Amino acid sequence: MRPCLLVLTIGLLQQEWVGTHGYRPGQALMLWKRLYGNNIWAHSSEDLEGLNKDFKNMLSEHAEFKAVSLKDIVTASDGTKKILFTLEDGLVVETVVIPCPSGRTTVCVSSQVGCAMNCQFCYTGRQAIIFIKMGLRRNLTAAEIVEQAVFARRLLTSEVGSITNVVFMGMGEPLQNIENVLQAADIMVDEQGLQFSPRKVTVSTSGLVPQLKRFLRESNCALAVSLNATTDEVRNWIMPINRKYNLGLLLGTLREELSSKHKFKVLFEYVMLAGVNDSIDDAERLIHLVQDIPCKINLITFNPHSGSQFKPTRDEKMIEFRNILAKAGCTVLLRPSRGDDQMAACGQLGKPGELGAPLLRVPAQFQAALEVSV
Ligand SMILES: *[C@@H]1O[C@H](CO)[C@@H](O)[C@H](O)[C@H]1NC(C)=O
Ligand SMILES: *[C@@H]1O[C@H](CO)[C@@H](O)[C@H](O)[C@H]1NC(C)=O
Ligand SMILES: CC(=O)N[C@H]1CO[C@H](CO)[C@@H](O)[C@@H]1O
Ligand code: SF4
To answer: Which positions make up the signal peptide (predicted)?
Structure first.
């Protein structure tokens, strides 16, 4: 198989590829700029205008410019677009483009096919998409990740304006694919590459502690952590990864790592679930948990989907919760979920109704809140 050029950072492109084929590093840089820079985003050797002819011929013979092919685009009534891509091996991933009236447009990229984390209110983890067996299928390559953002940019330049933000919050746990995610994020923020500001590229994790440490040390991109609960009891249930890396360990690590990196803020995502994690006590515990961690907190409206056992917290209650945090000095935002009608909201990718991974037993004290029959 011909290697895909999109997988390479500029350093690798120069050293390992162009060099070994007998061309100069300067040509690698020109190629790199055509792959990512100046709104060119070449996806075939025909788009390589201005390059030396021999070099171009060599490339069309030996290199691949595309890692994914478009399968479908679905637009929700609020303008959110869900893009489906077919990969080389026939598997399918999803990318979501979320326009905001404020002018910010975010692309939400997937990092794996399927997901192993089994978070209790996520479609991707629980529901099959094209495949029947659930769970993690494979890591995406850096090329497959970068190309999602490149494609979204190409698609939007002609429409809504350009993509301003990238979030790694689609299918998969990005930090479980840390090698490729670090490489993809590098290309996105490279000044010769996609030129996103590192503050506008956010990698989201459910809390893989060792990888999170590595990410903070090696990347200057932003980090989001899905907290979603204030006690291990609840988090063990709704985010089983907590059984391996509990709240104390997770927050302790962030506190330690971030104290030396003053400007860096972590974004905590907290999905409000009626009767599960939205009490006044939860708000107070949350204040305590994030103490001394430079952070922002996003309170997210839960987006109920068919087959879901959870219910969203009422608006007044969310506002009350927010006010408690704000009063204690936390930076806190209320965020609605977007793209509801086509199931394109981030964290809910995938299609309902097919065979799912196991739901975990609902702890007794929450059964009333979910009204599950026993
Ligand atoms: C937790 O919060 C994130 C943040 O938005 C959300 O996408 C996810 O579905 C929630 N559940 C998890 C990770 O269990
Ligand atoms: C995904 O990548 C990580 C390293 O980034 C590796 O440890 C893991 O085994 C890979 N998973 C699969 C399913 O290939
Ligand atoms: C509203 C609500 O039921 N919140 C619960 C969240 O989880 C903690 C820990 O188990 C409970 O004590 C709260 O009552
Ligand atoms: S919320 Fe993210 S980490 Fe959790 S199962 Fe879904 S895709 Fe995986």
So the answer is: 1-22
Choose one of 43, 62, 81: the last residue of a domain: 62
Element (H, E) at 253: helix 247-259
Residue 355 binned pLDDT confidence (cut-offs 50, 70, 90)? very low
Give this prediction's pTM: 0.85
Q: How many domains does the chain have?
A: 2
Question: Could you give the CA distance from residue 362 to residue 342 in angstroms, rounded to a whole number?
Answer: 28
Atom of ligand 3 nearest to the CA of 274: 1
Query: Is 115 noted as a catalytic residue in this protein?
Result: no
Residues 147 and 245 in one domain: yes
Please indicate, yes or no, whether residues 278 and 329 belong to a single structural domain of this protein. Answer: yes
Our answer on whether the CB atom of 124 is closer than 6 Å to any ligand 4 atom is yes
Pocket flag, ligand 4, residue 149 (CB < 6 Å): no
Nearest residue (by CA) to ligand 3, atom 9, is 231
Residue 170 has pLDDT above 60, yes or no: yes
Judged against a pLDDT cut of 70, whether residue 338 lies above it is answered with: no
The mean pLDDT value for 16-37 works out to 76
Q: Catalytic annotation on 119?
A: no
Higher-scoring residue by pLDDT: 1, 222: 222
Tell me the mean pLDDT in the region 133-137: 67
**Is residue 85 very low, low, confident or very high in pLDDT (cuts 50, 70, 90)?**
very high
Residues 272 and 367 in one domain: yes
User: Do 332 and 291 belong to one domain?
Assistant: yes
Q: Are residues 126 and 205 in the same domain?
A: yes
Name residue, tokens 């009422």: 314
Predicted pLDDT of residue 347: 45
Pairing of strands 68-75, 105-108: unpaired
**Which residue range forms the structural domain that includes residue 56?**
5-62
The residue whose C-alpha atom lies closest to atom 14 belonging to ligand 1 is 119
Same-domain status, 183 and 279: yes
What is the DSSP code string of 89-139?
TS-EEEEEEEE-TTS-EEEE---EES-SS--TT-HHHHB-SSSSS-S--EE
Q: Do 283 and 361 belong together in one domain?
A: yes
Residue closest via CA to ligand 2's atom 3 equals 177
Ligand minimally distant from the alpha carbon of residue 120:
1
pLDDT at 126: 47
User: Taking all residues of the chain, what is their mean pLDDT, rounded to a whole number?
Assistant: 81
Distance CA 279, CA 297 (A): 16
Residues 13 and 127 in one domain: no
